[in-house]
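Assemble and predict.
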Amino acid sequence: MIALADCNNFYVSCERVFQPWLNERPVIVLSNNDGCAIARSNEAKRLGIKMGAPYHQIKDLCQKNRVSVFSSNYELYGDMSRRVVSILMRFAPEYEVYSIDESFLSLEQIHDPVRTAKEMRETVLKWTGIPISIGIGPTKTLAKMANRMAKEQDAGYLMLKESENSLISSIRVSDVWGIGRKIEERLKKLKILTAMDLINAPAPAIRKAGGVQLERTQKELHGMQCIKIEQIPEPKKNVCCSRSFGRTVTDLEELEEAVANHAVRATQKIRKEGSITCGLQVFIMTNRFSKEPQYSNSRTVGFDEPSDDPIRILSTAKELLRSIYRKGYSYKKAGVLLLNLQPRDQYQGLLFKDHHNEKKGRLVEALESINSRHGTGTAFLAAQGIDRTWDMKRNRRTPRYTTNWNEIPTIGNNFEPS
DNA sequence: TCTGGGGTCCTAGGACCC
DNA sequence: TCTGGGGTCCTAGGACCC
């Protein structure tokens, strides 16, 4: 059996751990730039706030109903996520961290999966304050479905066996893991509306409608494991860093600063993974929701020799940016992708040229060590800009309670928060 | 005024090879 | 009029996930 442990309304639950008065009140957490609602408490869901709803459209509703609204605090959520995983792994030695709030666990060796699920749930709640739901099924897809049902029934945990047809027949096909809007439409034309319809449909028709992936989903619903638990995550193949601006940006100089920051952050990511990049893409775009003239463009370049040098990646990114920049547009977003990542230890140098520069290497290491000791952003390259007035909005972020010495919560009145 | 960010996998089609 | 057969590799775009 496979279990899927999923944190309930995860970002909201993280905020509630440190602000318990938010319990049983409507709470939402906004995306970067305070754009959309990306996490909602059950109370907020009941008010009709949809996943991904633009905040400016629901602002009145939130004020009227005294909804607590927060900017996302990824330092906090990332740290809470690690804590939850560290508890789950005590129960199941084989597991896969699927996303920031979900893990698949293999319960193959476990005698009584339901009992284990109950214990996991209680322990995670007690040790972290985060409520989780656990779905158990013979495959990942069925575990996902069981998880969904557990949440709907407010049960906490639920085990789904293959034979439980009555349960499955009530599930809409679009609620099956792996089926999005487009596939749903195609299936609708074939009169396949529920998970049960999908199970009973002829395989060739399914293959035609949704390719091998949909066929795999169908097999998984039959109880045949097609999607393995991946204990050790594969190294990333690409990395992307992009942001919307807090305001529109027209100047090349400001775009350059933003792209410089994305390039440096992307490079930090691959260095942490021990990867080097073979290529680089830069993109810029105007606000697609605006009626102003639209422009978006991207340019890609391959490196003659793979690199993880932030200075080289940054300067290449700036060159690419200059080549696609057009004056007169109001830009809303810029990003940098590092493509075709390779493990650093499989690096092949060039025969006739050497980019390697020991002095520069030491400089980058010094930057990294300063930032890891004193916090990200302590030391940075001048190209990244100082004021960064274009930076994203994050007006309602709570303290980084668990990862920053200056923001640790205090108890009682003896200590004034600094 | 205001609309997120970061990934993966698959497929079709083009360019190229013998 | 009629123009082979069988591959590989790469890329862009589409679909999905959280």
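The domain at 2-152 of chain A is CATH 3.30.70.270 (Alpha-Beta Plaits).
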